[in-house]
Every structure is written in structure tokens, then in C-alpha cells.
Amino acid sequence: MTGVSDWELVARAQSGDLQAFAELVSRYQTPVIHFCRRMVGSLQDAEDLAQDSFVRVYRYLPRLRPEAKFSTVVFGMARNLTLNYLRDSAAAGE
């Protein structure tokens, strides 16, 4: 799906096209993992957080609107989940 914009893929995914959502994950998976890893230091935790981020994007698909770049939405969700993870880890004394 080269040449198709992120928001066009979101619109297709909102209509039930799982391949469109898979393309979004493919486009952003590596950068999101790297982003999370810089925050938590662990590749395994970063991969888990990235996966949780995409699950959250999928759950919120019906509410997503092209008011910002799609990457802003994805990285915003990843940031929030990672900050929550760091806060919870600190509270647990890890």
C-alpha cells in the first residue's frame, strides 16, 4: 500500500480493513519500539509497550480524526503508556 496516506489507511481500517491496519503497524512499529526503548531501557519492555500502543490505537479507531499527523497520535499513545509504566514501576519499587 505504498503511496497511501496514513489517514487513508485509518479510514480503511475504520471500515474493517485489517490489512490497512496491519500496514499502519508495519510503518510505525520499529520507530515506536525505539521511542519506548529510549524511555525504559529494555527492548522487551519497549516491544510490549509498542504492542500495547497499537492495541490502543485499534481500540480507538472509531474516534480517530485527521486533525493531526497520524504519527502524533501513535507516539502520543506510546508516550502515555510508557510514562504510566515508568510511574507504576517506580511505585512498585522496581
Question: Topology of this protein?
Answer:
Blueprint lengths: L5 H9 L3 H23 L2 H17 L10 H22 L3
Helix pairs in contact: 1-2, 2-3, 2-4, 3-4
Mind describing the biggest β-sheet? none
Overall pLDDT level:
95
User: What is the CATH domain class?
Assistant: Mainly Alpha
| Low-confidence region ranges | none
In total, the number of strands is 0
Shape: elongated
Oligomer: single chain
Number of helices: 4
Helix content range: over 70%
Strand content: under 5%
Global Rg: 14 Å
Class computed from helices, strands and strand pairing: mainly alpha
Give the name of the CATH architecture: Orthogonal Bundle
Number of domains: 1
CATH superfamily: RNA polymerase sigma factor, region 2, helix turn helix motif
If you consult CATH, what is the topology?
Rna Polymerase Sigma Factor, Chain: A
Distance between the termini: 42 Å
Overview of this protein structure:
This protein has 94 residues and is mostly helical. The chain has a single domain, classed as RNA polymerase sigma factor, region 2, helix turn helix motif (Rna Polymerase Sigma Factor, Chain: A, Orthogonal Bundle). It contains four helices and no strands. Helix 1 packs across helix 2. The longest helix is centred in the first third of the chain and has 23 residues. It is elongated. The protein starts with 5 loop residues before the first helix and ends with a helix.
